[in-house]
Amino acid sequence: MSRLHEMMDEIERQRRRGNFKGAENLAKLEMKEYELQGNTPYYNFYRGFLWYLYDFPFDAMVHFNNSLLTEDRDMFYVHKFKGVVNLENGKYDEAIEAFEDAMKLVSTEADTISILNSLGNAYLRAGNTQRALELYSEALQLSYDHDLDEWTQITLSNIGVAHVNMGDYKGSLKFFEDALDLARALDDARGERICLNNLAGVLNNMGQREDALELFMEALKKASQIGDKYGMRVAYTNLGYTYRLLDDLDKAMEYYKKALDQAREIGDRPGEAMAQYWINSLREGQKRFVAP
Predict the structure, then answer these.
(1) DSSP string, the chain
(2) Residue 289 counted as domain residue
(3) Distance between terminal CA atoms of the chain?
(4) CATH code at 230?
(5) How far is the C-alpha of 142 from the C-alpha of 201, rounded, in Å?
């Protein structure tokens, strides 16, 4: 296993644990080391990875395209993160192509499962739910076969999301509940936060607002405990949304404002735009309500 492979495994492990700053610092240290060595291809990779973390997709892609890595199978990570950047920017065909290129260079079962999930995510967002479920099922079986519990938990969550997309809310609950049990067994706080949000979202869709609030509050507490500020922003937004559905507009405004502040703190531009939209909508509604 190459140095890059070992470092990216650790960086992704730290991110799954909610230690985003630690993951960022590891990437910065590697980038600086390669810069001092004059190793331009690997410097470009970590520079691109950091631009991706900072949500600058164009800059990330420029550096990934200049990352002509030479060690055994390290181009796997270049293709993988080009796929991730394309996926997050709605370029699904380009994402699928990049993930398929990465699949040709996998070297471990975990890599294979990772790319199967990534391909599933791309097909799901592109509207091909059946193909996504096929890929997730393949990933799930591999994770069972090789006792890769972290990937089992991630894949179960993805299958749950696919069922939600199909409108099968009851069917999704089992997958989310199993994923939550695994996240707790693994002490995966970020995974637990994601599972709680997923479960609460389903309960909201089923009209069980109070139960949803309870789980969103639990997700917020978990995110706060591990310093997962993005997770806190997500929880604040979801709490605002749920209180709005309950017609408790003061509470909704309170949590949307918290979401806005948190989004601005971490540079989460989509989260900031969403929170600002709902704050403006609530204010406009209040103006109409008090108008003579």
Answers:
(1) --HHHHHHHHHHHHHHTT-HHHHHHHHHHHHHHHHHHT-HHHHHHHHHHHHHHTT-HHHHHHHHHT----STTTHHHHHHHHHHHHHHTT-HHHHHHHHHHHHTT--SHHHHHHHHHHHHHHHHHTT-HHHHHHHHHHHHHHHHHTT-HHHHHHHHHHHHHHHHHTT-HHHHHHHHHHHHHHHHHTT-HHHHHHHHHHHHHHHHHTT-HHHHHHHHHHHHHHHHHTT-HHHHHHHHHHHHHHHHHTT-HHHHHHHHHHHHHHHHHHT-HHHHHHHHHHHHHHHHHHHHHH--
(2) yes
(3) 71
(4) 1.25.40.10
(5) 28
Of 176, 173, 211, residue with least CA distance to 192: 176
**pLDDT tens sequence across 148-200:** 998 999 999 999 999 999 999 999 999 999 999 999 999 888 889 999 999 99
Task: Determine the structural domain holding residue 233 and report its residue range.
Answer: 187-292
pLDDT of the residue at 289: 47
Beta carbons of 114 and 45 less than 8 angstroms apart: no
The residue-averaged pLDDT of 139-143 equals: 98
- For residue 192 the two structure tokens come to 């637990």
Domain count, the chain: 1
Residue 64 has pLDDT above 60, yes or no: yes
CA distance 2 to 178: 34
Instruction: Please name the residue that has the structure tokens 């309950």.
Output: 246
* 201/66 Cα distance (integer angstroms): 40
Is this prediction's pTM over 0.90? no
User: Does a structural domain hold residue 213?
Assistant: yes
Enter the tokens of residue 64: 């990934």
* 246 in any annotated domain: yes
Whether residue 140 lies inside any domain: the answer is no
